Amino acid sequence: MSWQRINILGGLSTVIALLAAIPLLYVFYGSIQLPTQRWLGLWSTRLPELLWNTLSLAILVGATTLILGISAAWLIVRRRFSGRNIALWLMILPLTIPTYVFAYIYTNLLEADGWLGRSWHSLFGAASSIPDIYSIGGVTLILAMSSFPYIFLLVHSALSQANPHLEEAARIHGAGSLSIFWQITRPLLRPAIAAGLALVTLHVLSDFGAVSMLRYQTFTLSIYLQMSGRFDYNAAAGLSLVLVMLAVVFLILERFFRKRQRYYASGHSRQRPARQASPGECLLIWGWLGLIALFSFFLPLAWMVSWSARAIAMDNIGPVFWSYAVNSIILAISAATIAIFIALPVGLFHHRRRNLFSLSLLQSSSIGFVLPGPVIALGVLTFILAQLPLLYGTLAALVIALIIRFLPLAIQSQEAALQQLTPSIEQAGRVLGANALQNLWHITLPMMRKGMISAWVLVFIDALKELPATLLLRPIGFDTLPVRIWIEASEEMLELSAPAALMLVIATLPALWIMMRDKS
């Protein structure tokens, strides 16, 4: 690729990184306004607890999602068993349920008269204490159930596309299954695992729904309370700045440990055939996958269906309800479609250059996934009022906030696909006379098609579920399903919040089908 084309990519990537940095500029500006005494007060009181809670939660959720995601992907890719395609779907469907819905449902299920509460007392006696979901263990469970599909998707894709010749060569030379996994398969999976773990960690650092529902003090909840309760925007900006620095340190470490772990998948290598599982193995496989699916999807789904049936019986679902669903879908499609096209230049530029500048643009574009939704919304709102006042109160302002919020999903998924793009294939296209656009259209984009589809679906699903930024930036009269869930849930109106939660699940199924048809 010529320097001119690289410069064009670099210019586009710089503009995109600056767009993504709009909320960060607001954070810096607000932090500067915070007096030194207030900073010292935060460091001596709030920050140690928030750092400990947030880091502990990120580590626990990361470890749990690695266990769930890698084990499920390995079993489904490397073993052939009855219902394999159904199991594949069941590992993806938890993505359709927002964290605040998970938290709301499990707080009800674990009450003394809830399904799980009654089951617990039946098994262990009426005097036994039901597990407390208002704890780090409860928050870890909720966030892990909603996040492990990120790990599963990327590891499943990497395992499916891995060249089987390396493992076969090791087996011929006498290596055992454990040795092959540790020395051959595990290094090949590192890019996918690292990308998935980055998404999970950023998801945990910025989550607002679960931690607010379960009242677990992390940076996001404390920032929201500073903004909504005390109206102390400078203190909120200061806490946000610490959260950004924490995320940047994590991203730099993640890149440092991953930078030498690249590999290229040949487009001509055959896929490794899955080994037929024995009856005993089938029982164990379905026991493990079924347990994951039970708590991450079936129980929440059963709860939503049960309460939605009551809402239908009470005639609580009318035309206004369907307008919420249409608003949510329009918003999510707009954000996802624009995000994947905006993410492409950033991923391509870093793929071509791989230097400090390209990495800084990549990391700057990922800042939006670290900041809490309210901070992103206020940053975008401040920018629009100062520079683009005509957009104030319009749907465009909300779409911009969602693009900034979920751009890292698009970038991480596309970059993971680009890392497996063999350079020699692109070089062959240039040798045969293809120009940059022809090479991109006929070679690069087809080879990263699955990554782009995954990126679109992931952004669509998360944009469909997004809550705090939508609460602040939605136009007057433009309610979405998450907004209605939040309003009805805060008033304990189960028969009204359940149908909206169920509709979120139904609305994501077509998008998941688009992505999953290439993986089944």
Please explain how this structure is put together:
The protein is mainly alpha-helical. The protein has a single domain (3-260, 280-516), classed as MetI-like fold (Orthogonal Bundle). The protein has helices at 3-20, 22-32, 36-44, 46-78, 84-92, 99-109, 115-124, 136-161, 164-172, 177-206, 209-213, 219-228, 233-258, 279-313, 319-353, 356-365, 373-387, 395-419, 423-431, 436-447, 449-465, 468-473, 481-490, 494-516; strands at 79-80, 275-276. The chain has a two-stranded parallel ribbon.
Helix content: over 70%
Q: Would you tell me the overall average pLDDT?
A: 80
CATH top level is Mainly Alpha
Number of helices: 24
Spatial sequence of strands, sheet with the most strands: 1-2
Q: Tell me which oligomeric state these chains represent.
A: single chain
> CATH topology, anyone?
MetI-like fold
Could you list the spans in which at least 5 consecutive residues all have pLDDT below 50?
Answer: none
Give a brief outline of the structure:
The chain has 520 residues and is an all-alpha fold.
Task: Based on the model shown, name its key terms.
78% helix; 1% strand; MetI-like fold; 2 strands; mainly alpha; 24 helices; two-stranded parallel ribbon; 520 residues
Describe the secondary-structure layout:
Blueprint: H1 3-20, H2 22-32, H3 36-44, H4 46-78, E1 79-80, H5 84-92, H6 99-109, H7 115-124, H8 136-161, H9 164-172, H10 177-206, H11 209-213, H12 219-228, H13 233-258, E2 275-276, H14 279-313, H15 319-353, H16 356-365, H17 373-387, H18 395-419, H19 423-431, H20 436-447, H21 449-465, H22 468-473, H23 481-490, H24 494-516
Parallel strand pairs: 1-2
Helix pairs in contact: 1-15, 1-16, 2-13, 2-17, 4-5, 4-8, 4-10, 6-8, 8-10, 9-10, 10-13, 10-18, 12-13, 14-24, 15-16, 15-18, 15-21, 15-24, 17-18, 18-21, 19-20, 21-24, 23-24
